[in-house]
From TrEMBL:
Residues 2-215 form the Luciferase-like domain. NCBIfam families: FMN_nitrolo. This is Luciferase-like domain-containing protein. Keywords: Flavoprotein, FMN, Monooxygenase, Oxidoreductase. Belongs to the NtaA/SnaA/DszA monooxygenase family. It comes from the Eukaryota. It comes from Chiloscyllium punctatum.
Length: 227
């Protein structure tokens, strides 16, 4: 997140996505930072929503172990409900006045406190950033599980796919679109991005040499342990 404002300063048309987990901080603080980035990027920031997957990460923030898989997505659904309320519901468009003569920045009659009291989070606050260009940042998601697909179908504007065949990719897209329809969304409001690693160099020979060099670092045991 610290790099995004600098990247935005030297680019014009680049959308910048940030991966941030919902499991390790309150909705209020993350919502405020994304609003600030949306202002600084002039509406070019995206959020890749993750729930976390590592016991080590949970222990790093003082928890014994990570929450089980499906309950993490229940938490994520609630986290999104809370940040939506902050981004979309705390300030009306009419709230911004900016009248230097009267010394008024915003009309408090068009600003309201969010009250979210859920199973995992409690928010009683006004969103402290005025509405940004997007309000809610562009939302990415990459869940491939049954519960993850439901989460993507409900929230995502773009979905990362890591399938290794056209048939699996096509089936995954069709399934997620069907789930989006079940949630009352237009199935074509979701875009899909297939994982592709592109290796480039000055010439084809140099690119193939780089590819062979990369292969020397593949560790099957390490990959299996991560999987």
């Amino acid at each position: 997140m610290l790099l995004v404002s600098a990247m935005a300063h030297v680019t014009e048309h680049l959308g910048i996505g940030v991966t941030a987990p919902v499991s390790y901080e309150p909705p209020f603080t993350l919502a405020r930072r994304f609003s600030t980035l949306d202002h600084l990027t002039k509406g070019r920031v995206a959020w890749n929503i993750v729930t976390g997957y590592s016991n080590a990460a949970s222990r790093a923030v003082g928890r014994d172990n990570i929450m089980p898989h499906d309950p993490r997505y229940d938490l994520a659904d609630e986290f999104l409900d809370a940040v939506y309320a902050l981004w979309e519901g705390s300030w009306d468009d009419e709230a911004i006045v900016v009248d230097p003569i009267k010394g008024v920045i915003a009309d408090p009659h068009h600003i309201r406190k969010v009250h979210h009291h859920g199973a995992h989070f409690k928010v009683d606050a006004i969103h402290l950033a005025h509405p940004s260009p997007q309000r809610t940042p562009f939302l990415f998601q990459a869940g491939a599980s049954n519960r993850g697909k439901d989460f993507a179908a409900r929230h995502a504007e773009a979905v990362f796919l890591g399938e290794h065949s056209k048939a699996r990719t096509s089936a995954n897209v069709a399934e997620t679109r069907a789930r989006a329809r079940a949630f009352g969304r237009d199935e074509h409001d979701i875009r899909f991005y297939a994982l592709t690693t592109v290796i480039v160099a000055e010439t084809r020979v140099a690119a193939e040499a780089k590819y062979r060099d990369y292969q020397r670092y593949i560790d099957p045991k390490g990959s299996l342990a991560l999987l």
